[in-house]
Amino acid sequence: MIGIIGAMESEVNGLKASVENAEIRKIASVEFCSGTLNGKEVVIAEAGVGKVNAAVTAQIMILEYGAEAVINAGVAGGLNATLKVGDIVVADKVAEHDMDTTPFGDPPGFITGLERVYMECDEGITQILKKTAEELGVHTIVGTIVSGDQFICRKEQREKLIGEFNADAAEMEGAAIGHVCAMNGVRFGVIRAMSDCANDDSIVDFPTFELKAASRSVEIIKRAVSKMDH
What we know:
By secondary structure, the chain is of the alpha/beta class. It is built from 6 helices and 10 strands, in the order E-H-E-E-E-H-E-E-E-H-E-H-E-H-E-H. It has a 5-stranded mixed β-barrel with strand order 5-9-8-6-10, surrounded by 5 helices. A hairpin with a 2-residue loop joins strand 3 and strand 4 (40-46). The model has no long low-confidence stretch (mean pLDDT 89).
């Protein structure tokens, strides 16, 4: 079983519509759609925006559905200077940029318990997502995606994430899903299409380009799932 999590309707509806023999369950206010997508057993959910929503959804997928891998898909703000709206970042690792225990001598993003800053994505999933995006002719990079309960749209926010994490993209869920998967020993991957460039124009760019970016992410996931094994 492959779990697929998006934060918003636009990030998952195109996937749900393609599921065969769909069964719908609502758990903890989240709707889970399970069935078959391109020959693979999947469960898909719109988690809602933010780290807590994403974490709850991932844990339910693992406990209730036995998800053996979890993919987080959707949109993000680009931080890497080579990225434009519509480009793709596939994470090789993720971090929670708003975790801050630096007064105790920890590095930014350090997660007590896991004793690390970065959660490493599954290499196999990362390569499948990357190759699938490239097959569609989309400019794609593999790099660090950071998550926090903040919409990144100011110069100082952007510079901090680049400076502290060498981050390529910023969003609000992926690292929380990575955190849960790391705790449970479950493989995970994160793929994001750029809806904006995490700068002063983001307030305008995000609503303008979000649907287009999300649809690109959906198309990549549809194709990539068929290449994955358990």
